Amino acid sequence: MTCAPAGPSAPERFPDGFLWGGALAANQYEGAYDVAGKGLSVQDVMPRGVVGPPTEGPTPDNLKLVGTDFYHRYAEDIALLAEMGFTTFRFSIAWSRIFPRGDEERPNEDGLAFYDRVLDELERHGIEPVVTISHYETPLALAREYNGWTDRRLIGFYERYARTLFERYGSRVRYWLTFNEINSVLHEPFMSGGIATPKEELSEQDLYQAIHHELVASAGATRIAHEIDPALKVGCMILAVPFYPLTPDPRDVWAAKQAERANYAFGDVHVRGRYPGYFLRSLASKGVELVVTEEDRRTLAEHTVDFVSFSYYMSSCETATRPRQPGGGNLMGGVVNPTLEVSDWGWAIDPLGLRTILNDYWDRWGKPLFIVENGLGTHDELVTGADGRPTVEDSYRISYLNDHLVQVREAIADGVEVMGFTAWGCIDCVSASTAQMSKRYGFVYVDRHDDGTGSLERYRKQSFSWYRRVIASNGAVLTP
């Protein structure tokens, strides 16, 4: 593991008002997939995550249908977050809980009322909500009947949904994210974009037109939010992966730059309001001609985001000079970095990469940055602790998060404006990529297993107390 030494000017504590918390997604923890008028989402037919084709309908082996039952246990779970001292909680709203098909004229009141209750509980504990409008949860009807975001009509459906949320919750929620990891549609078009065409058959024309529709919808949501209340803050959300050249050969350096640009383009449009030249050249080389209206151009240009949020789990390498070896597990491609350790699922562990991303994004966009996902997915073993209670002795998770947060502190000392940090999967949830329970991220262990068995009881891990101390000290207890 490679980490930069802490600089002498790095503060011991994080800035006042830094938002400390965790993050979860509706499709991975809510459950209650068919309760109170909720419609099906793409996740309800993905029992194996992204490693298998969708099924025709929900199947008993899909752990996400129950998740960790937050729908019925939200008060208990939010109390655990409050016990850790969370000042913020990032969660998503299930689109198909509000508009079961996605294309209705009127929302489902029972779905809206559920999130009223969640917000009531957060307010009772003084926890600031951060809401993701669409987190890999496209209503299944929009995927099956419209081929997801390839169809321009989804812009209007999404804007109606976003307006409904802003009007209902805008006085209670200040921070909004439009699409989770919007650039992931390049790699997982069904999960990320509701595109039903199998990805091996999906044309680049359709893929990039779908991306354009999402970008316009994101800007449209920003417009609506600011019209309803100019104090609302809307951010984009990007899956961040720094790419390093595998060797100093200039061809590898250029290959790494090209790989990073594929992700930069999404932030460039959100922040700058236009497509960058390198992206347009790339489209031309693929023979892609986007259908872009004058209204699209105005929407993108006039309604840019207030901040940039991102997930960070790994870095990767790129090469144009060496044979490409399969493996490594990194979602965004690239080649294995031989200098880094990897997680149980093959993701490169690179704390310094987080400081790199923070500096790169700040230098490039000059917008406040929000780390809304980071964490270690690994196997945990429930044991009996010294106090006789079940726990997980997860010193490995503490080390991972400590090392990453030290690099956040360093980036802040570099002059980067960082709004906050929400650890991913703060309470164990079903993995998005593999649909397993055994890939655990949380500070709280949930007794549920890959075969669907378990009591769903919650148990505090060793990292629970550690994170509580980190928050209480505003980062002062972190060790370089």
How would a textbook summarize the main sheet? 8 strands, parallel, barrel
Helix percentage = 25-40%
CATH architecture: Alpha-Beta Barrel
**Overall morphology:** globular
| H and E string | EHHEHHEHHEHHEEHHHEEHEEEHEEEH
Strand order of the largest sheet: 1-2-3-4-5-7-9-12
Strand content: 5-15%
> What's the N-to-C terminus distance?
13 Å
CATH structural fold name: TIM Barrel
Annotated CATH homologous superfamily: Glycosidases
Protein name: Glycoside hydrolase family 1 protein
Keywords: Glycosidase, Hydrolase
Family: Belongs to the glycosyl hydrolase 1 family.
GO molecular function: beta-glucosidase activity
Textual characterization of the structure:
This protein is 37% helix and 13% strand. The strands form four sheets. An eight-stranded parallel beta barrel has the order 1-2-3-4-5-7-9-12, surrounded by five helices. The two termini are 13 Å apart. It has one domain (19-472): TIM Barrel (Alpha-Beta Barrel), CATH 3.20.20. It has helices spanning 26-29, 70-83, 95-98, 109-124, 140-146, 153-169, 189-193, 204-228, 250-272, 277-286, 294-302, 351-365, 395-413, 462-472; strands at 19-23, 88-92, 128-134, 175-179, 233-240, 243-245, 307-312, 316-318, 369-373, 383-384, 390-391, 418-424, 444-446, 458-460. With 480 residues, the protein is an alpha/beta fold. The model has no long low-confidence stretch (mean pLDDT 95). A hairpin with a 5-residue loop joins strand 10 and strand 11. Belongs to the glycosyl hydrolase 1 family. The active site is at 373 (nucleophile). One of its GO terms (cellular component) is cytosol. GO terms for molecular function: beta-glucosidase activity. Keywords: Glycosidase, Hydrolase.
